Amino acid sequence: xxxxxxxxxxxxxxxxxxxxxxxxxxxxxxxxxxxxxxxxxxxxxxxxxxxxxxxxxxxxxxxxxxxxxxxxxxxxxxxxxxxxxxxxxxxxxxxxxxxxxxxxxxxxxxxxxxxxxxxxxxxxxxxxxxxxxxxxxxxxxxxxxxxxxxxxxxxxxxxxxxxxxxxxxxxxxxxxxxxxxxxxxxxxxxxxxxxxxxxxxxxxxxxxxxxxxxxxxxxxxxxxxxxxxxxxxxxxxxxxxxxxxxxxxxxxxxxxxxxxxxxxxxxxxxxxxxxxxxxxxxxxxxxxxxxxxxxxxxxxxxxxxxxxxxxxxxxxxxxxxxxxxxxxxxxxxxxxxxxxxxxxxxxxxxxxxxxxxxxxxxxxxxxxxxxxxxxxxxxxxxxxxxxxxxxxxxxxxxxxxxxxxxxxxxxxxxxxxxxxxxxxxxxxxxxxxxxxxxxxxxxxxxxxxxxxxxxxxxxxxxxxxxxxxxxx
Amino acid sequence: xxxxxxxxxxxxxxxxxxxxxxxxxxxxxxxxxxxxxxxxxxxxxxxxxxxxxxxxxxxxxxxxxxxxxxxxxxxxxxxxxxxxxxxxxxxxxxxxxxxxxxxxxxxxxxxxxxxxxxxxxxxxxxxxxxxxxxxxxxxxxxxxxxxxxxxxxxxxxxxxxxxxxxxxxxxxxxxxxxxxxxxxxxxxxxxxxxxxxxxxxxxxxxxxxxxxxxxxxxxxxxxxxxxxxxxxxxxxxxxxxxxxxxxxxxxxxxxxxxxxxxxxxxxxxxxxxxxxxxxxxxxxxxxxxxxxxxxxxxxxxxxxxxxxxxxxxxxxxxxxxxxxxxxxxxxxxxxxxxxxxxxxxxxxxxxxxxxxxxxxxxxxxxxxxxxxxxxxxxxxxxxxxxxxxxxxxxxxxxxxxxxxxxxxxxxxxxxxxxxxxxxxxxxxxxxxxxxxxxxxxxxxxxxxxxxxxxxxxxxxxxxxxxxxxxxx
Lengths: 472, 472
Description:
The structure is a homodimer. Chain A is of the alpha/beta class.
């Protein structure tokens, strides 16, 4: 019998691959190793679970272990793959302290990424959290609950009861500091405010959500202040101080007494498993892959938050760890391993985020330094236009930033911000970018118009028109 | 001195052209003839004025005559252009019964279209309205008002006071029939229901909003019934009967006593001005134009609801009279006439409509008969998927229909329907269609994902994935 298709990691990429493989090759064997207890959960939903908008942690699970078994997948949880031998085509698995060796025909490394907190001094004090995975979401939600209340979701098998009970016993925080004003920081600030907690966000640079560009960052900042969040922009956190538990944020402008700290300063790909193997790691630190998700070593694939993909604008490798990318690449690799080579698809860096009632979308390359590094001559324009016909109630100002290459006129990137259906409009720009559209072509797209949804000249068209004026 | 640029029609296309020309050529002369009193008003906003959501008729005006004058445009209202001599390059203008002749250097025919009601027997009875233009919107809103109340907006100069006062004196209707279940019918049903009127919609075919496809029509029908509208589908109206005033709708299934009827069965391009000239009329009945909006006669342009444009899918002429097309073509022609040839842009047939809380968008060619007539081998798929992550509150089912050409895999058209940000998503498909995208390419687009806005697999991607299965 042939060796099985072995997948390391039981989340989006890993289980998408295993599911597709099992569907295409019902006779084939696929084993998924997951070092933890949780599988197939919605990372992006965890802030809303902490907020309370998503009631139960189980709501975040896409698949149960039983669902996975029904698909014909041999799922093995709490088994950590600690080594890969690409010559022998084996992995070494640890379970309850015991090692075993598993041969593979093909191997998918879908080990994800982890939240970074070590650059922040004092990050290991109690009461300092990152948001990464279900356990941390449960712990933070427990810390926000009243001590008298039933600990959240401890009836769910995989929940770490001890931790949840411990944090439920804490008094709810009165003041919280969020270190980092990216996606996680912004979403978690909303979550904390929903619990009535005094919330401070520290951002080292001058703008929130740097990948969305300055105009988006400014609108989000204004809106978050309206929602009662205190922003410390251009303000680096020097240290988190306290006894066992965090008590103070020491920052460049002073000190803030806090009861809880959330560090959201970024994530790092989990590639340690491959150190010592010939599998090539890209400049980003994530695993280098080709258009089919193959690594530099025959029979070894990588997908999801640990892997690079090809960027639609530059054609070069890029590391943009997001949910669709993981699901899509996993599915394609499952199909490829099953015998039907299928491209994983380029990424355009499309991302959307909600900050209270403000919506933001971004795609491609907006930043000029980045664009120049990729050999473009960038020119940008930011406009603000109504989201609906001026006379129609309920609209909001929509802010659009476009970046293009001056010589070719090609659209490189864009961002859209506003309260009225702004985020989803980014898909228009994502499609334009992936389909190699110039700004003059963008300006002449036949986009939708009806008073409740868009003015005659959609904000995207207005931005294209103005930017086009700088190109001619 | 050179003869002026003469524009016939003072609405979207005409005034966009005149404005652009005046901006580019401050030394040039441009005259706009408008046969009526209203200029530059938002057609698409009139149902919301009738509904009362837009309070004042003046809210619908984009430009006042004073604004137009400030732009350096010689606007002449209540002057009808009754003849064109393309050899002599003159137009004949009637004002207060007096004729005069005006030479032109270039001529733009932007005469718009008019609502059709003559196929309906009894259409000239009092109380039978079409919705086309501000006067009819004022009349209908007046008819919905209580007799004791102040007639609406009679303080506005251009309002036809006599008509408004006359209809205000009527008792508000208890029962209204809407003949036609297209855009206007659907939007006006919403307007009538907002006034608490019993509302019946008659649609000759089996589905509302035929250009949006059956799936959209069915969802809209279900939703309108929930909103208290009585639908008569597959039911032709035979006659409107009454004395002076309409009293009865005689339809193939019986008779309905009514107080008011709105006929919304379509519009027809106003091209009579060009009969007897060599200017070519297209198969659609609208004026044939090239990529710069030029007609078959040198120096004569046409734009807006009276003109054809080139369809992005077929590359053939098509008549799709909508707001953006008019504005965009007008602007391009203004620039061309000013000396800088500028293409008017293709149309993709992009349209969006709101039916109470249901949103629909459509683009391209959805219908198989139409696609076959254009030489395609059409294949379609309709799917329904969540608008947001399943665990995130506030989402709705989003229905997506895609039509593609079987051989090339090219996306030909699509429709999107749902209550949660569904309509504006059509711009993704509009962009894909204008940029010649195949279904496999569509399936791999990097579209946005975040729980409040979209599931991991956007409904558009789900539809592409399923349709792709039929292509392979």
